[in-house]
Amino acid sequence: MKYFILLLFSSFFLQLANAQPYDASKVNKKAVQLYNQAIERAQDGNLTLAAGLLQQCIEIDKNYVDAYLSLAGVYGQLKNYKRSVEQYEIAFQKDPNYTIDYKLPYSIQLAGLGEFERALSAINELLEKKPPKNENSLKACMYRKGTYEFAIAYAKKNTNKDYVFSPVNMGANVNSAESEYLPSLTIDGSELIFTRRLGRVNEDFFFSRKLMNEWDKSKPIEGEVNTEQNEGGQNISQDGQILVFTGCNRADGFGSCDIYISYHTGNGWSPAVNLGGRINSDQWESQPCLSPDKQSLYFASRRNGGLGGSDIYVSQMQANGKWGEPQNLGPVINSAGDEQSPFLHADNQTLYFTSNFWQGYGETDAFYARRGPGGDWSVPVNLGYPINTINSEGSLFIAADGKTAYYSSDKSDSRGGMDIYSFELREDVRPYKTLWVRGQVFDKKTTKGLPSTVELIDLTTKLTVSKIQTDEEGKYLVTLPVGKDYAFNVNRKGYLFYSDNFSLLKNSPDSSYQKDIPLQPLEVNAAIVLHNVFFDVNRFELQPASQVELEKVIQLLKDNPTLRIEISGHTDNAGKPSDNITLSMNRAKAVISYLVSKGIQSARLVAKGFGETKPAAGNDTEEGRAKNRRTEMKVVGK
Questions:
Q1: CATH of domain 168-429
Q2: Mean pLDDT, to the nearest integer, of 527-553?
Q3: Helix, strand or coil for residue 38?
Q4: Which fold has domain 433-520?
């Protein structure tokens, strides 16, 4: 016991000896000279040289507390949080009282390492022992305290023990010694477009194509978009045909920064066109993003009438091909702070953006919100650590698979400045996985491409998910978020509409669809299969999901008041032929009854039941039998 007490007292006096009050006047003069040089280098922005000089100070005088504190600050600016924490802790050990004010920056460095509980302990110690008298300093402490508490609570609610955040540099073919940022991809992931800062002055767009799972050497995009002026904040449409971006201080501008558009042509990208005074104001507009169907344009703006700072707006494409009046996304998304970098995923439902107002980890965080069936946005959700950190986070781009994310960072393996990285997004913050259909609409007789309307409808809610116009050659691309069943309709005046369905509620194939669509001129004997008319097995009552398709038939008949049609039912060869004839006739009559109930004259409608007598495919496979169980519509009079 006596030996134990002796050791205890020896340890106590040793701590007193090591914790003598720091006296700056006793610091080695040569070390002070080097320290002053280091501070000048740090003020000039040469942080690496400043760190080296401060190390020399410490080598000359091991008790130079100010040198440890300044070195910790320099490491913090270099984002070397581990070394910063180490230097702070040495300084704290040498004089806890002199260094107590530095518990705030120390806590920030701990948070940079993701050690939020230790960061909270440090800030609580400062508030308990020596709360700042300066009001702004006290506010800073309370702000950081709130961010640490948020981080701790978030971690408890979202364990995600198996998730590993491991960003991968996209390599020398994409990144260079310059800064690369704001990545954007086509929906098939084959083309990457990004901004590169050249010579710290000019910004131009570059692209890289994926060939055999490798990105080729990036080069300036072709055409006339890149100029001697700055081009930035770009977003490429999902089909790769439209580029929207930000241009600042241009002769044709309405404000400091405006939104421009360019179209892909046979000669590359067309000259940029200002989107005009409806989209652009006399204030700042930037960071545009097109919805996957190209019918909505999201962007950030500081225009008058917002909720404060920068807000996110959306403009809808009008029937005349012009953009409508931008609408503020409202107080669910926007705040008194800055909301920026909107990115609407290919699922057309999940919006990612940044905010410096909503509760987070500090400065600017990334959030997401989902659009409900009625069009309202959900409350924003923080993406969590380590996607969000104590620093300002930039924009994310998430591929159609819903899990591969791209962003820019100046990590330690950067080839110079900002580089583009990819990583796997945590499962709970992913958008919906999205497939897509692309193809061409054409005249069945002439094979000429037809500009048409392509519509995608959720069969459960009966709400339109996407409604797009093809290009002049009839080419289109429409996205299909998995987990739902869709009706797919193509319409053009003077033609029978085309219908199909995509059943993705239970099945999620890892592929896209190529679907070229022949439209039939509206003439006698023209016929289509009504793919979205549904019946239960051996029943002839229409399923509710059939209403989406039948409303198209009704609209066709209303648009063409002299048109007469035949509705025919068909079955496979299961069961008795006579029963199949009866079943098919009853199904055709059920469709006729629905049309009549909606105001269509019965004289314009004919019902036929053919049973199994007109198969569309063989009955030896389930796929063939499914094709034979169908409802058809045929024009019998004009």
A1: 2.120.10.30
A2: 93
A3: helix
A4: Immunoglobulin-like (2.60.40)
